[in-house]
Design goal:
By secondary structure, the protein is α/β, with parallel strands linked by helices. It has seven helices and nine strands; from the N terminus they run H-E-H-E-E-E-E-H-E-H-E-H-E-H-E-H. The chain is 31% helix and 24% strand. The termini are close together. A nine-stranded mixed β-sheet has the order 3-4-5-2-6-1-7-8-9, sandwiched between helices.
């Protein structure tokens, strides 16, 4: 259950996972969804996000796109702290903030940007959501394996994506490994980055805080 102090701050979910796992596809489902919530999505390059032109209702400079469903999509560029602060101080601040990290980011280090700075007055980290490519799970380069373990180990929710591309025994084996690395994490199985229906963000946050 959220504390009274947390209720007055904007919840943040950190979306992490290696390049190609399906983070951007998942973001597109969110941006096109009729979720009825004002969500700010911060990405390293929103030019890589395939936003339907008919959904765009306004552009603010080079960094922010306003969408018809109430979402805003912003480029982080070099300063996550500044980007989040600007979002929080808008006249119409979002109800949620979703931050997509780069594929080689340590999500715990990103979380510290929110918990160990003045941003903690405005936001609180509700969940770390890690997208795992089921098909390529065994093929992670050796030099990235420790980081991959960290991304899974810090996750509140693990989205095991592309499960349609592996066999049932392979999926069961990967799930067992994920549970070993992060026993308390919820595992959500997806194809093409599609989480459950239009309220997947709401469901994801509830999963993160209910367990």
């Amino acid at each position: 259950m959220s504390s009274k102090n947390e209720i007055n701050r904007i919840p943040v979910t950190i979306l992490t996972g290696f390049l190609g796992a399906g983070k951007t596809t998942l973001l597109n489902h969110l941006l096109h969804g009729g979720h009825g919530r004002r969500i700010a999505v911060l990405v390293n390059d929103f030019g890589a996000v395939n936003i339907d032109a008919q959904l765009i209702v306004g552009v603010e400079g080079e960094d922010t796109v306003n969408l018809a469903n109430g979402c805003i999509c912003c480029t982080i560029r070099d300063d996550l702290y500044r980007a989040v602060l600007e979002i929080c101080q808008r006249s119409d601040p979002p109800e949620y903030i979703l931050v997509e990290t780069s594929g080689v980011s340590d999500p715990l280090a990103v979380a510290h940007t929110f918990t160990q700075t003045a941003l903690s007055q405005y936001v609180h980290v509700e969940a770390i959501l890690t997208v795992v490519d089921a098909e390529q799970y065994e093929a992670i380069p050796r030099e990235n394996q420790v980081l991959a373990l960290d991304q899974i180990g810090t996750a509140d929710i693990v989205v095991l994506n592309k499960v349609d591309l592996i066999t049932l025994p392979q999926r069961i084996a990967i799930e067992e490994r994920i549970r070993y690395i992060s026993p308390k994490a919820r595992i959500l199985l997806t194809q093409h980055g599609q989480l459950s229906a239009i309220n997947w963000v709401r469901d994801a946050w509830q999963l993160a805080v209910s367990g």
